[in-house]
Structure formats: C-alpha cells, structure tokens
Amino acid sequence: MRNGRSKLAVLAAIPLLAAACSNGGGETDATGDGGGDLSASLTGAGASFPDPLFQDWIYTYNSDVQSGVDINYQSVGSGAGIEQFLEQTVDFGSSEEYLGEESLEAAAEARGCEAVQFPVVFGSVVIAFNNPDLDGLVLDAETIAGIYSTEITSFDDPAIAELNPDMDLPSDEIVPVHRSDSSGTTAVFTHYLATEVESWADEYGEGKELDWASGLVGGQQNDGVAQGISQNPGGIGYVNQSYAQEAGLSVAKVVNADGTPIEPTLESTIAASEEADVPDNFQFAIDGIGGEGYPIAGTNWIFTYTCGYDQESADAIIDFWTWALTDESAQDLAGELGYAPLGDELTERVIAELEKTNSENGDEG
Length: 365
What we know:
By secondary structure, the protein is an alpha/beta fold. 38% of the residues lie in helices and 18% in strands. The protein has helices at 7-11, 18-21, 51-64, 78-86, 101-111, 141-148, 158-163, 184-196, 198-203, 221-231, 241-247, 266-273, 311-326, 328-336, 344-354, and strands spanning 40-46, 69-75, 92-95, 115-129, 138-139, 175-179, 217-219, 235-240, 250-251, 253-255, 261-262, 297-305. The strands form 2 sheets. Strands 1, 2, 3, 4, 6, 7, 8, 9 and 12 form a 9-stranded mixed beta sheet that branches. It has a 3-stranded mixed beta sheet with strand order 5-10-11. Strand 10 (253-255) and strand 11 (261-262) form a beta hairpin. The longest helix is centred in the C-terminal third of the chain and has 16 residues, at 311-326. The protein starts with 6 loop residues before the first helix and ends in an 11-residue tail after the last helix. It holds the Pfam family PBP_like_2. This is Phosphate-binding protein.
C-alpha cells in the first residue's frame, strides 16, 4: 500500500517542524551557529545499520544546532541495543526490528510506564562483493538463499549464469559472510529470504540471530561483515548500503516481486519504502516490493520511555529526533548515505509519537 508521496517530494526539503514540535525544551536553533538553549548528555545504543547516518546527525546537531547537547550513540547491534534499552542503561535504543508485545510488556514492567517506539529512516540491505567485475550481478531470492545454504558454491553456478547471460562469470569459490552478533540487519535479510523462499523459511527461518550453515564466515556488526567481504577472495555478504559505499564494494541487482532486477539506490529505497503500510503502532515490515523498488529494505526504529527522564534529557531527546526528521540538512545527510527519509504524513505521525517521551512525568520532570 503506497502512502501517496512522490519521490520528488521526498527528496525535496521537508518543512522545518522542530520549533512547533518541541516538548517545552526550547526551539531548535537552525541558524548554524551551534548556540541553542538545551543542555543534556544522552546515551543511545543499538543498530549498526544506521550508524554512519546517526554519527553525522549527532555531529551536525551538536555543532550547528544545540552545542549543549552531547549524544553518545554506541553501535553495538540491534540485539544488544534492545537489551540495553530494556535494562535502562541507555536513554534510547535503536533496532531494525521493532519491539514486539513481549518486549513492550517487559519494558513497561521494568520502567513502570510504557515504552515509545517509532521509525526514523529506511535503508536497503545490499548484497556486496569484493570483485569489481561482479558489480551489477543479478541475483534473486532463490540464488541468495542457495548461496547462504551453501547449495551454490561458485559464481558460475548455472542458477547464477541463467540470471546473467551476458556476464562472463568467474569460477571463484563463493565465501558467504554473515553477522555473528544479534543483528537487525540480519533480521531484515532473513525476513526477506523467509518470505520469498519456502525452503529457507522451513530450514533456517528468520530473526536477529540464526543457526547458519557450516562453512560461512562471521563478522561483528555491518563494518565487520564489510571487512569479511573485502578480506576473503570470493567474499559475498549483506550490509547496509552506506557500508558498501564506504568500503568501495560492488553490489548486486536483486530481482523484485515484479521480476525486475533493481540496483540499490536512494531512489529504489524510497520506492520500496512507499510500499510500506504503517499501522498506528508502527510495527511493520516491507514485503513483496515491486515496481522500481529494491526488494531487501528495512526500517530503523528508536525506543524511548514515557517516564523516568529528567526534563532536560527528555527535551533533548525530543528536540534531536525532531531535528533529524524534519531539518533539510539532516535529510540531505541521509540521502547522501543512501538512506530514505520518511514521507511528510508519516513524519507528522512519528513526531506525535516521539512527543510521548516522558509525557507521564507531567510537570514534575
């Protein structure tokens, strides 16, 4: 189900809503002088998937918007991020897998109030290689599943050759690389395979951690997988698009639901995100992508609480994420790294949810 936004509208500047949406913490200073009137020290932890973007956002926000707000985001993986959020050792958590009912109940029981979760950005999980001659190699869900189940062991396998009749394929042995930590990127990748390939669903399933086939190479976080790809002749792995860009890796085109091989780009990620039907509780997946959309697309969620923060911290959390979601420079940073921003209507919904942060504290802070 499409949410009605056009690609041009998404790529254009999103109106600045920060001042109107601040939760009493003062208006966002968008003048670029890094003044601002907020003072807080925040810690977040979780997904490595959005880490390149989050680090750029944090640096720009501290330098140009609110110099009194220090944010330390720890790229520890989605599983560890959820764990630290539920243990209340961080101010906010981050994951490519939303909090299910069990986790929400655990959060409420531990904190004494409800958790808040909302999406902040979309991104593609790309299939990357260290061989430049393989750039643009066409793969589909069946061949990707075959590679990771070790049924396909060389690049000139007939199943790959059939998809690439005009490419001179090497006979190199394929070395699949996977995440060895609890990973939202793995959750997105394996959800795609489990949704598209029945045999994969039956044998391996999906989730942040998997019982992989023997003989695969593991890597910690997205950068560890990128390193594993680069360091192994015949290396192939799944990483967020920005990591492939940074490492200079070649990427595959992946056949989508309409049978079209799609290159992972900002535009194809936006097209995929437009297919998402986002419910009121923000618990959703991006499935069955056709048209011009890249089929392995995921979402990053942020988690906060409706109570328990001092007011300065709560104001800073709301102000930072409002700025990240609405400021033109913040959205430009996302696009440069291949991340797709939320559409206007979804942004308004997300900010309304974000403003529930610390709302149960009332005026007592």
